[in-house]
What we know:
The chain has 442 residues and is an all-alpha fold. It has helices spanning 3-46, 48-75, 79-106, 108-115, 121-129, 131-147, 152-178, 186-209, 224-265, 269-288, 291-310, 314-350, 354-363, 367-382, 386-411, 413-440.
Amino acid sequence: xxxxxxxxxxxxxxxxxxxxxxxxxxxxxxxxxxxxxxxxxxxxxxxxxxxxxxxxxxxxxxxxxxxxxxxxxxxxxxxxxxxxxxxxxxxxxxxxxxxxxxxxxxxxxxxxxxxxxxxxxxxxxxxxxxxxxxxxxxxxxxxxxxxxxxxxxxxxxxxxxxxxxxxxxxxxxxxxxxxxxxxxxxxxxxxxxxxxxxxxxxxxxxxxxxxxxxxxxxxxxxxxxxxxxxxxxxxxxxxxxxxxxxxxxxxxxxxxxxxxxxxxxxxxxxxxxxxxxxxxxxxxxxxxxxxxxxxxxxxxxxxxxxxxxxxxxxxxxxxxxxxxxxxxxxxxxxxxxxxxxxxxxxxxxxxxxxxxxxxxxxxxxxxxxxxxxxxxxxxxxxxxxxxxxxxxxxxxxxxxxxxxxxxxxxxxxxxxxxxxxxxxxxxxxxxxxxxxxxxxxx
Length: 442
């Protein structure tokens, strides 16, 4: 199968699954908003920066590194080394995840009070901490299969995670209502953990069916081959992990500061948290919905770019990047038109919120840039330009943080939306300039 056909097939599988998953998640958001209210959704969204930061430190960088490393090994015919890399990644990722789980549990109240600035998040963080060991297993195995360009298991695991999450929350809520027990948004956090447990178990069981590895192939064997795998993986994963951690620290600062800045604008604490919930729990998921396709393209591009780069096929690489980026940007333009005409209708029909509709219409303008940026950053990572992608994302985030601290207090939430649009445009421009510079020197 040609590289083009591989990308199309993998993208198709991931896109179909992504749309199904987002379709389920979309109505799940509606269920959450009607069950726990806007303030409850805001409280639920408030713990996600901690989750994103923990995941970045324990698994995200290792997953991407595994995908790139496995693709390179396979292009050179080194199948056994690719498999050994997986077990090395699992060893490091699982160890880190256990450490993070314990740290969050022992410092949950401090994080809730001093970082998230809402003591009610303490119990949510304790529940959330259990997600990391299972997320590490799920991510590493998915990274391995992505490097193999075998997307079926990635797609199924994604669906399982979403279905288990939604069903578990729904069943728990129904049971508690029948028993006249009060509902807490902590149920939604427990659903996150149960969903990750389900997908991790699926990955383990289906991986075992593909054939067991002998004890001599594990990371525990201390010969020079094992140390070589460790060195290769760490040399890729450490910069990627540092990239993700830094970005998520900045994103966390951004997220937890939005309610506070809205209070400075003149809103009460409850109003600020409700508005934050509408933006992040209702409007943004609508804007992100079409990214099931663009995210799938970006996912398939990373190992393919790494493989083509290894083969030193410059013309094929340039042609691939131009075609994919152009298609994604065009899709974003179509989505912008669609959201501009239907945004208010979506907000009122699905969320019973005119505010959500206004946010969707305003956010529609970021679609071409946001969707293209996902692809462009994946291309840069596939080329090994991790430092460049870090710099570009950091610039975009700094602009967004500027809007949080200076534009929201002056103009309200619309100031943040302006900053969000400006950051996406900035990332697109810097990514294109970086790619031009790379190919002019190679």
